[in-house]
Amino acid sequence: MSKPSASPRTEVRRKPQRAHHDTATVHAIIDQALVCQIAFNQGGSVHCLPTACWREGEYLYIHGANNSRLTQTLLEEECAVSITHLDGLVLARSAFHHAMNYRSVVIYGRFTAEDDPDAKAAAFKAFVEHVSPGRSPLVRPPSRAELAGTRLLRLALDEAVAKIRNWGVEDSEEDMAIPVWAGVQPLALTAKPLQPEAGCGEQMPPAPPAFIGRA
Amino acid sequence: MSKPSASPRTEVRRKPQRAHHDTATVHAIIDQALVCQIAFNQGGSVHCLPTACWREGEYLYIHGANNSRLTQTLLEEECAVSITHLDGLVLARSAFHHAMNYRSVVIYGRFTAEDDPDAKAAAFKAFVEHVSPGRSPLVRPPSRAELAGTRLLRLALDEAVAKIRNWGVEDSEEDMAIPVWAGVQPLALTAKPLQPEAGCGEQMPPAPPAFIGRA
């Protein structure tokens, strides 16, 4: 842990040896995410919804329609955002010591709206590049009406914590002789063969983001 | 939509044509999940944490240490659980019409504890089978102390909704002539080569769950 926790909320109580508060670790996990999960309260109830995300500088960005419940509510109160990459199944000799390898980040704070059209256009360009590197110059950029109808929200990464498990089996000494395969089954989000629209045969196919594995 | 929404909370307001309330669809999405995200309130703040999950019958199961904040808090109040499978990047001819294909479920309710040792042993056996089919007879089952130290929680699936996008590009007519590749980049969680512990060379290697793709 190269940096102390920013707040009591980002102190990891369960298995604190897995916690990381340094910016580089938090950023690296966010930069491999295409989707985050947002917890918020609305109408007397807690909610948890997935949405696409990307990072620029010290902010996590999301977007949504101007009239969506999610974006409206997120501007009004604090939320928690979770990002999780499942990296492997840890298969132990005892049922109890089975585990998962993962990299996760939780961010606390309140989103703010970015309403400047130029800033919005730049952020959406970065979003296209995050999803498909090199694509933004090839596609039609958002029109003024499309920009105006889309809300861009950003959340400062000041209060964030990462949690990582990235090692092997931790069986007890007395279980080591059990005759069963033990180790890690690594998992990764992987790009499968492209499904082109009709009439796209002559166009250069896109490459997936560098952080996505190839089939 | 073959079944109506169970409550106002599971009515999908944004893009309701993507909503599904039927049990088979909800179960199928949960059954391909290894991890869920849980939103809950604790200490005056909303939180969002990932944890491993599996389904048996009409319940979603999770587990945790007896003394963990998460399991303790979840027994005391309502939460929302989100499961999301990211299935593809929808690459349109216009930046605005880019999208993602996904299958997601949100469940509302309150977890209850299952404390009966036999029921716990059966549920943890099902968990091992979910993660690694055929493995439970090969590993040491949980001891009485291990069972006693682990909390098993379950959440009824009464108030759940699925949301699915699983189709191609939706560009506007006036963008169809833009000379750029358009279509879907499918994505899938995939099993990579196994990483055995030392000394496991003679044991039969495990197969990943059927819902995980092969590299």
From TrEMBL, chains A, B:
Signal peptide start and end residues: none
Compositional bias segments (type: Basic and acidic residues): 10-22
InterPro entries given in the database record: Pyridox_Oxase-rel (IPR024747), Split_barrel_FMN-bd (IPR012349)
Record lineage: Bacteria, Pseudomonadati, Pseudomonadota, Betaproteobacteria, Rhodocyclales
Region (Disordered): 1-22, 196-215
Protein name: Pyridoxamine 5'-phosphate oxidase family protein
Segments crossing the lipid bilayer: none
PANTHER family: 5-NITROIMIDAZOLE ANTIBIOTICS RESISTANCE PROTEIN, NIMA-FAMILY-RELATED PROTEIN-RELATED, FLAVIN-NUCLEOTIDE-BINDING PROTEIN
